[in-house]
Specification:
Length: about 90
C-alpha cells in the first residue's frame, strides 16, 4: 500500500493521514483474511551454517562458540534445527 511518494531525500508527497490509515487498514485486512489457514513451511535438517569473516581475529573469536569448525577466516556450524544454528550465529 503506497501512502507516500519520495521525490528526494527531503521531499515527499503523502496522502492525508486519515486516507492513509484507512487504506492501510483495508490492505491489512485483505492480507490477513486467510492467515488462519496458513501453515509454516517445515525444513528438514541437518543444516550447515558457514560464515566467511573479514579478519582472522573475527574468525578466531567466532570459533569460540562450542561446536564450531574454523578453517582460516571461515567458521562452520552444523545443527539439526535452524533455530539452534541461528542462535550460534548470534553468539
Amino acid at each position: 500500500m503506497v501512502v507516500k511518494h519520495a521525490y528526494g531525500r527531503h521531499v515527499a508527497r503523502s496522502i492525508h493521514p486519515k486516507e492513509a490509515r484507512a487504506a492501510i487498514r483495508s490492505a491489512a485486512k485483505d492480507v490477513v483474511a486467510g492467515a488462519s489457514e496458513l501453515r509454516p513451511h517445515a525444513l528438514d535438517g541437518p543444516f550447515t551454517f558457514e560464515v566467511d569473516l573479514r579478519t582472522s581475529l573475527a574468525a578466531e573469536l567466532a570459533a569460540l562458540a562450542p561446536g564450531t569448525i574454523r578453517n582460516g577466516r571461515t567458521v562452520r556450524y552444523e545443527a539439526d534445527d535452524v533455530r539452534e544454528g541461528f542462535r550460534c550465529l548470534l553468539a
